[in-house]
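Morning - glycine inputs below, output right after.
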Amino acid sequence: MELWSRRKFFLTSLAGSAIAGATKLFGRTLSDSNGATATARAFPGSPAQGKRPLIISSANGLHALGAGMDILKKGGDTLDAVVAAVTIVEDDPNDDSVGYGGLPNEEGEVELDASVMHGPTHRAGSVASVRRIKNVSRLAKTVMEKTNHVMIVGDGARRFAVAEGFEEMNLLTEHSRKIWLAWKAKSSFNWRPGIDSPEWKEHISAIFDGDEKQIAYAERVIAHPPTGTIPCMAVDSNGDISATTTTSGLSWKIPGRVGDSPIIGAGCCVDNEVGAAGSTGKGEENIKISGGHTIIEMMRQGKSPTDACLEAMGRIAHNYKNDKKKLGTFHIYFYAINKDGMHGAASLWRNGYEPSKQASYAVHDGTESRLVGCNSFFDAVGGDQ
Ligand code: GLY
């Protein structure tokens, strides 16, 4: 695509947003060949210069990036680093977005998706709709290393995992089971009290032993089913790059639904000459624009990780003619690093998955793991997740 059309597209999206009443946020003033400009805002944490080694993830990986950075500092492989980091989140029963304890499908079964890409060897692996196996990022890596396939799904992936020595287990924790029960009660109004009925409060209170915090959380994820995910990407001191994305996918999904996380070129993309990209949020929207690949190609043509993520976001907004009402039914983020160790991210809305908090992502550039604010496409609170 010609540079002019990409830029024009970007500014067209901007104009559309302005018409829709949105203020968009950018790190600099942009102008097209006609001299139209977009106002800029500087974002601390979106560096003008890179730093290597570097590892980043969605905000839910904040506590896990240190494990990946330790591997990078010792000269370990970038794929080992990102898989080590997300494995901590997959193993965590208290994180219901990923791996063990993930929120299940509509039948109460946890189904996981994951992918990996190894930049230096140009290889990829992925798994989708995997049941009873906790560490699907490592399973995706095993597909990459032990087979000549790229993607294995469903029961075939589970059997492959067992053959490769992965432990089978029930992935549903008590916490996730109770929330699923509450969701079922809400949706099965013929045999349980529906969410709007007078008996609802009593019913949900019994499920959670009156714990108001848990009840409020359950009501939120029932009303706005999350697509919990952790993408993680790293570049080492030599400039080699890898990435992984792992998820329990859309809560209460139809069994077999697959999002963007295991789709190479959408939820995970690496080009060792350029950088890496990943995503969280409504995977269907990302798949439709091949977001990961789009971001890599934007960076190849010279865009910063942040601007590349914003351009990908512009394509999603464009698919809905920048209609904030329609776009407000979901949330999506993009994350990227480049070969120089620069990082960036874009969220569709200013708020994060927790509506009261600003969208952010986790960065570790060798000193400490910290949260950095995302550039948001719409300077408005929105999104359904
Ligand atoms: N982005 C994760 C999913 O849609 O499943």
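Note: Residues 3-19 form the longest helix (17 residues).

O.
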